[in-house]
Amino acid sequence: MRFRSLFFKLFISFLLATVANLAVFSLIRWLAEAELLPVSSTRGAFSEALSLYSEAAIQAYKTQGLAGLQQFVGRSQRESGAEIYLFTDNLKLIDARPVPDSVSVVAREIAGQQQPGQRIARVFGGRVTWGKITIAPDGERFIFVVRFFLPSMRPPPPWQLSTSRIAGLVLTTGLVCYLLALYLTSPVKKLQSTVKAFAEGNLDARVSPGLGSRRDELADLGREFDHMAERISSLISSQKRLLADISHELRSPLARLSVALELARKSSNGKAAGPLDRIEQESERVNQLVGQLLALTRLESGAERVPPEVVSLEDLAQQIIDDADFEAKPLHREVRAVQLDHCRVKGSPELLRSAIENVVRNAVRYTAEGTAVEVSLISRLDAAVLKVRDHGPGIPESDLQHIFEPFYRVSEARERASGGAGLGLSIADRTVKLHGGAIRAENAADGLVVTIELPLAPAAAPVHPAPEKLQV
Amino acid sequence: MVSVLLIDDDAELSKLLEEYLQSEQFQLEAAHDGPSGLAKAISNQYAAVILDVMLPGMSGLDVLKQLRQKSAVPVLMLTARGSELDRILGLELGADDYLPKPFNPRELVARLRAVLRRTSAAASGGPAHPIHLADVELHPESRSVNCAGRAVSLTGAEFDLLNTFLRSPGKIISREDLTQAALGRPMSPMDRSIDVHVSNLRRKMGPYEGDQERIKAIRGSGYVYLLPGEQP
To answer: What's the CATH code of the domain at B115?
Structure first.
């Protein structure tokens, strides 16, 4: 359990609030019960015993006179701590002693009561004062009052409850609080996992099915999220459809153009070869541009997402190096691997291939004749670092951070001659960022170094068999 | 004239291609949707089929899948440029080669000729003696393959690839040579179709007993067909 989670906070605060409530409640109850309990003792066995006690006191007085009473009172005081006061009918204490206030109050109350014979108990200063009218066998009426401590009859104070009862109480409270906190936080958890799934590209992720028949604010939030998700996914799918349509609609005329061009070439019998070659070259350029624009738009629209495939970067790099070297040879340039470490990254082999390819081709375009583009792949602690170095003119420092922007041209003339559309590096940039990596360019002594950093796939990641087509 | 079927929804393109291919000694017939194209292709009167993957209604891949259940006619697939998935799926479903669209018609003709040359070379016999190598039997006359006692069903390109491998086991064969041998055309840069064919072949044949790899990739050089217990 995370201690900073909402669940934990709710759980703990509910638990503390409930325990504090219970503590205060039982304290108040204990204090109130302490006042009430002796009153209840005006009835029942306890009261009967005191009645018999009063009769015994009167008998001692009747048979042995004042001395007998005093002896009885003294013994009672000594042995049980109960102070006995015996009044005559007109409230005169038989053995003259100082009478405590509480005793005289109770005695007066008894004397003045409507129905004789009723027993009265009061608590003063933690002591019970109990009294009744007692009639001697010869018919003489006495008022008997006894005052005593009754500690054992108080309910035990809350802090003296047995541990099992406290444990039971805490467990019950804990369970209730746990369920309550769970009830409140489970939709938040559900919402969080759905948002995560959505962000990772599962556009069908919705909260509602997991909420059941809930109808509170959290359920409302979930439904609002669902509305939003619905809207985003329909936007993205219409974007995807649009891209496919554009791709189709732009390429169909190009396909026709190239066939028509060949027909023209045939019927002109080589007379217009120059201009026709130019048309072919330009239409191929438009075609490439369409492809790159579409790729870039796909990357930026969020329609593209990174599959959880594990890609062997060194194999990919080797393939690209082989292919690029093959293409560069006729231009008297080379592409070679300086060092290729074993690197596994998570992502799409197709996207990563086109990203790296774009960077390498760019380097081939600018490296001087007779030199080689050097590619190295180094495995760091948590990142794969791919460096592509050319031996060309480099780039003015002020332009370095702009070269990844679409259609950014460092130098009009140079770019024209090399025939690039100006989108290759942008595509590489977006692709690398989509894969959670970074790309940057810096000038070396002679030429440019483009560095691509990609996070390594966790070693424990399920190793999907690298797509077979990549094994060369 | 060689008769070829084009399944593509672009009627104008079909017309232009018809005209162009005519001059290259091909008789082109066109179908503009999947179901009618499939019906025509199954009729078996064409030397080859050019199939566009992006078709309205029934996708080109579905057409290919159904066609392969009934006919072994060579299929050249037209894929949207940059759509790797279509290409890989197409080759896996038994297309003989592919061409990204928009294509250069000269390239189309070259590929078409390569596919036809390969299938006709196979039909006319070529080296007709069967090959036995370890647990593999290859019969050129019936174009059938047995591996570890069970029949393996291979596409035309895969068969030619295996044939090439079995004739020089233990030797590294470059991807260029393999492309030439199996697809009947030179390899173009950035062309990965030979790798797809090799991986399909590898999957269909399975490893040797004891999980030893049959076809090994040699980085930067090509592929090698290994004998049991052999290390490259």
So the answer is: 3.40.50.2300
